[in-house]
């Protein structure tokens, strides 16, 4: 092999120096540069000895014959990096099993592709048990290795809970939080695509950017017309976090996110429950003069989506809405933009 673990290397594209920390496969290395660990292809790095030798010769020539007037070196302007959002990235690590490469575990990374440094809180749960917790700080355009998770445990559909808080002017931005769950079928599709395209990892967009904190306004909006839900059996438990009277920029109306058990409920009662949850979220958004909101309804037969759009058409505070393709939701979400007098 050209490299060994612990060797010093240089990135061909940027000229940055680092060390090799692990071999991921026959084409991929894991390197650490300035305290940040990430994967690279082997042909993207080289030994730094030629650079060191060249720089040493240049220094010796300068000492032997210094010019009367040193030329002014123009500073190199680094290209401005564009904000792309916050991601949870997963890197499959393979092992040989019966002469075939299979996924052994996944390396999980948090990516901050924005110019804002953040404080993060991260918690992975299986059922009610937390299997990994961590919090800390991640600088702008920084990548952070979090932990490994076995491929077999992904069959239990662990919940990746996350929260991000802006470290610069924290009072101006609302914190971001959410939960990522990956169905085994989707995970298998992602890994199959990686192998076909010869790519090292796949990522999930957590959020695109921080949103400004909603400003308080003494003028109270007119009360909204709410849908009256059909009677729901008392033994059905609604998840406690939906009782918080705070506005949300993302509302998931999938019934499994609203109720623990739906046995005994008809489709009409479930739809009415979802619309009631929507009405509550819309009322809170208007009361806090929120500027926009995402409502996740999924695809299905389009019954829930059509009912949501009917409600939005009747609201004077809704400036417009659209159900266009989005990378995170596909066509399964509607984006709402509000207006106020």
TrEMBL record:
Gene3D superfamilies: 3.30.1370.110, Smr-associated-like. SUPFAM superfamilies: Smr-associated domain-like. It comes from the Bacteria. Residues 275-339 form the Smr domain. This is Smr domain-containing protein.
């Amino acid at each position: 092999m050209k490299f060994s673990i612990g060797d010093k290397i240089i990135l061909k594209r940027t000229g940055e120096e680092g060390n090799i920390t692990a071999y991921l496969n026959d084409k991929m290395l894991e390197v650490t540069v300035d305290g940040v660990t990430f994967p690279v292809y082997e042909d993207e790095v080289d030994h730094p000895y030629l650079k060191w030798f060249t720089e040493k010769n240049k220094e010796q020539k300068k000492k032997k014959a210094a010019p009367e007037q040193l030329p002014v070196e123009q500073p190199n302007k680094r290209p401005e990096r564009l904000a792309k959002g916050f991601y949870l990235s997963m890197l499959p690590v393979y092992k040989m099993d019966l002469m075939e490469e299979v996924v052994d575990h996944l390396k999980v990374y948090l990516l901050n592709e924005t110019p804002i440094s953040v404080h993060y809180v991260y918690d992975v749960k299986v059922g009610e048990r937390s299997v990994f917790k961590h919090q800390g700080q991640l600088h702008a355009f920084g990548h952070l290795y979090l932990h490994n998770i076995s491929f077999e445990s992904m069959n239990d559909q662990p919940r990746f809970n996350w929260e991000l808080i802006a470290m610069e002017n924290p009072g101006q931005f609302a914190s971001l939080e959410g939960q990522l769950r990956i169905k085994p079928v989707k995970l298998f599709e992602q890994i199959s695509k990686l192998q076909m395209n010869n790519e090292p990892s796949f990522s999930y967009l957590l959020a695109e950017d921080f949103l400004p904190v909603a400003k308080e306004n003494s003028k109270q909006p007119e009360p909204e017309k709410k849908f009256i839900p059909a009677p729901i059996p008392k033994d059905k438990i609604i998840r406690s976090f939906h009782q918080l009277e705070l506005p949300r920029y993302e509302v998931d109306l999938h019934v499994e996110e609203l109720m623990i058990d739906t046995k005994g409920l008809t489709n009409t009662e479930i739809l009415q429950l979802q619309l009631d949850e929507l009405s509550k979220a819309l009322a809170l958004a208007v009361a806090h003069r929120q500027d926009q909101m995402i409502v996740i309804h999924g695809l299905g037969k389009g019954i829930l989506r059509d009912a949501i759009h009917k409600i939005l058409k009747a609201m004077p505070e809704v400036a417009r809405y659209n159900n266009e393709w989005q990378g995170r939701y596909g066509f399964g979400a509607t984006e709402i933009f509000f207006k106020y007098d």
